[in-house]
Amino acid sequence: MFEINIDKISPKPDVSEEQLALLANKTEGYSGSDIAVLCRDAVMEPVRRCQDAQEFQEVEVEDDEGNKLKKLMPCAPGTKGGIKMTLMQLAETRGPEMLIAPPVNYRDFDKTLLRCKPSVSEGDLQEFQDFTNNYGQEG
Predict the structure, then answer these.
(1) Which of 18, 38, 99, 110 could be disulfide-bonded to 116 (CB atoms 3.0-4.6 Å)?
(2) pLDDT of 72-83, one tens digit each?
(3) Collapsing DSSP states into helix, strand and coil, what is residue 55?
């Protein structure tokens, strides 16, 4: 489910196969819809980092034509070359087009897991299993 939802995210998140396996284990009991919601929320984490940032650093990126451009990305306080400013100050002094959001990473998914809980409880799943055992058939 994570791979299906991650394929829809552009640019592709920086998440390894091992990290996907960890996320799968941590989301045991989550429905497909729960995982889709978790992925959509994780995509917003870089935006939140931009909003909360107090420093930005210059990074070089390529545009669609292959031209190298200098943009600003949030960084940790005290980062070498970091420029102290808020997102609003960046937009006012440098222009909003100078901002580039950091890529989505494993930490974003892990942080989102603290907020996103499964919509179906163990008790609900047990009721479905009991019904299947008593009246239905598997597969």
Answers:
(1) 38
(2) 999 999 999 999
(3) strand
Number of domains into which the chain is organized: 1
3-state secondary structure the chain: CHHHHHCCCCCCCECCHHHHHHHHHHCCCCCHHHHHHHHHHHHCHHHHHHHHCCEEEEEEEECCCCCEEEEEEECCCCCCCCEECCHHHHHHHCCHHHECCCCCEHHHHHHHHCCCCCCCCHHHHHHHHHHHHHHCCCC
Rounded mean pLDDT of the chain? 90
What does the pLDDT look like over 93-116, one tens digit per residue? 999 999 999 999 999 999 999 998
Residue 102 sits in a domain of what CATH number? 1.10.8.60
